[in-house]
Amino acid sequence: MDSTYEHTFIPLTTVSSGEGKEVNIDIYCYCIQFVNICLIGNPTSKTKTWFLVDAGMPHSADNIIRLAEDHFGAQTKPEGIILTHGHFDHVGAIEELLEHWQVPVYAHELEIPYLTGKANYPEGDATVNGGLISELSPLFPNHGINIANHVKMLPADGSVPGLPEWKWLHTPGHTPGHISLFREKDRSLIVGDAFVTVKQESLYRVILQTQEISGPPKYSTTEWEAAAESVKKLNDLRPSLAVTGHGTPMRGEELTSQLAYLVDNFEKVAQPEEGRFVH
User: Fold this and answer.
1) Spatial distance between the Cα atoms of 101 and 273, rounded to a whole number of angstroms
2) Per-residue confidence (pLDDT) for residue 187, from 0 to 100
3) In 44-164, at which residue ranges do the beta strands (DSSP E only) sit?
4) What are the domain boundaries of the chain?
């Protein structure tokens, strides 16, 4: 492992709403209510260039702007925003952020209809087993947004504009155009919701942030065969660090063993027994 990154690693503890964790010198994970955003960029560098991954919950724009300025300095703005997907809890503040920053947004081709006002996601599925959040999921916003003037398609070669060390991977299942980000140099993985590290369906476990690798949130995942293949793809990368869209970051042997178990037992552990999208 590159020694530049090795000495910056710190133990990963629970990250609650309104708390952040520097999981690497240039990866900062911040929790907004029950979803994580990431800042990619080294705040000690001269340039202080950075990117935002996902845009959190609705009405969190001021919080995100304040976080960015605390981290990178006053009047800062990202080079761009990268979306793992377009569900409401990952794009909630993006329109307000774009009014403030005026930067490009990068997403997968198959996710762009949901980001340009042309498509809506299915309603949350309350029939999946799991807990109170599943039962409440039909009440969650499922409409697309329209940021057509800002959104750009990620390059087909897997590169990420402005982040030459990172690659994006198509990890569908949770949504058609879901992506994850991977850096080979230190095997860092920003997962999105392809898998998560908390049982997102259970309000009790979400409140406690009980850490355990789980599949994508059951109530909003529509293609389970694709979701299983995406988890296998990510496991094959042998990540040393995983920052997920929900739950606390995980690394090392715990990540390796739990992710392998999820792959081997995906239908039993991750896929609901019944539901609108279970075939």
Assistant:
1) 44
2) 98
3) 51-53, 80-82, 105-107, 151-153
4) 3-269
